[in-house]
Amino acid sequence: MVTSIASSLGAGSGIDIKQLVTDLSSASREPKVTRLNGMVTANQARISAVSQARSDLVGFADSLEQMISDGSLRSKPTVSDESVLSATARAGLQADKFAATLVVNSLARAQSSYSGIIADKTAAIGTGTMTLTVNGVAKTITVGSTNNSLEGLATAINASGAGVTASIISDQGGSRLILKGATGADNAFTLTADSGADPGLSAFATNGGLSVGQSAANAEFTVDGIAFSRASNTIDDVIPGVSLTLKKAAPGQPVDIGANRPLDLIKQTVGDFVDVYNQLKKSLQAASKLSGDTTSLRELERELQSMVNKVLTSHGSINKLSDIGISTAKDGTLTLDKTKLDAMLATDAGAVEALFNPLRDGTHNSTTDPGIAGVLDAIRDKAVATDGSIGRVEKSLADKSKSLSEQLTKVEEREAAYKARLEKQYAALDVKLNAFKATQAYLEQQIKLWTNSNNN
């Protein structure tokens, strides 16, 4: 039976050559592998620390951005009678920028028209063309042999792109065609049978059997006594920054619109900003210490620290975090003077709000008034970019990880080859030792025979 070299080592010599080979190869391999594994563990710790710093930075920026985008830090409109209308504010609008009194005289309506009842929606109604006209724009509706039915007519109207929706409802005794347009007086429509069309199509024509259930009309309302007319009940262009939704007509009934500023949430957010900033700073310091790349991460720390005195809005006196009581301690962490914050809110709450919810109008934009979220987003995007402060460190550590993995693979390959050479060498040695022992035994036997012969 053929056996491996390793299993036969020492079989002839009596020396435990197998263990000897194992000990020699381990003595060569283990220090190298242990050293590289230690380097891999240390590098992974650096990667984890930098990943935590990235996560904290991105989470910090994203959570603040989310609070602002969802309106949590934004002044909210108040409506004295929400059964008549509702109001929502867009980003940048502040409580001291709007107040109005509205009267809703009538709501915007869409035209709806309906046909007489027919027994079967799949029955033939006649062929030919019809003209659907909306706000002066005419669309040709064709009923041919392949769609000669109420269902076919409805499908052709919906496919025309005229802005009129056709549907079929079941009524007593059969089906009825219902047409509905968009709200607003300009969206009134007509459907007429063209010359040469089968007489049956006139049953679905405005000047034939199609009846008007509701006429199209604009919403009519006043804002502070000024009359407005709009095609929709959702109105975005009357009160700057405010979207109105008219719910019901209430002639002669004034509805007041005001606003509430979320002062308690603003104060809480300022405090949370300081706490989260300090946690982020600890993460960056840990990552900087472990990674060994102090230059890149210290650059990021300096950029974050500069936010305290960076101009965030175009307000004349309250335009920086330092203006509302945030300052930098000797260790680089932030502190909050709550007394100063309360004083600034009492002095100009709108200016404090604008640090988080910057104004947006013809003169205030993301350049003139970036706000704290805009500045923090810019720092985050720059840092996590491939050539950014975090991006560079991450790439360096990833390259190091790959290099260590390759080195470990090469060491294992070399040590495996070294062990194979030892096995081969000591197998050959074992064969020689076995031969020497056979020769020794033969010589000892001959000497014994010679000795016995001489004694006789």
Number of helices: 8
| Order of H and E elements | HHEEEEEEHEEEEEEEEEHHEEHHH
Strand percentage lies at: 15-25%
Instruction: Please tell me how large the radius of gyration is.
Output: 43 Å
Description:
The chain has helices at 5-8, 17-69, 150-159, 263-291, 294-305, 338-356, 371-384, 389-455; strands at residues 76-79, 85-89, 100-106, 110-114, 128-134, 137-143, 165-171, 174-183, 189-193, 211-214, 219-223, 226-230, 234-235, 242-246, 255-260, 326-328, 334-336. α2 (17-69) runs antiparallel to α4 and α2 (17-69) packs antiparallel against α8 (389-455). It is elongated, with a radius of gyration of 43 Å. 28% of the residues are buried. Mean pLDDT is 88; it is low at 1-11. The longest helix has 67 residues, at 389-455. It contains 8 helices and 17 strands. The chain starts with a helix and ends with a helix.
Short précis:
The protein is α+β, with helices and mostly antiparallel strands. The chain has helices spanning 5-8, 17-69, 150-159, 263-291, 294-305, 338-356, 371-384, 389-455; strands at residues 76-79, 85-89, 100-106, 110-114, 128-134, 137-143, 165-171, 174-183, 189-193, 211-214, 219-223, 226-230, 234-235, 242-246, 255-260, 326-328, 334-336.
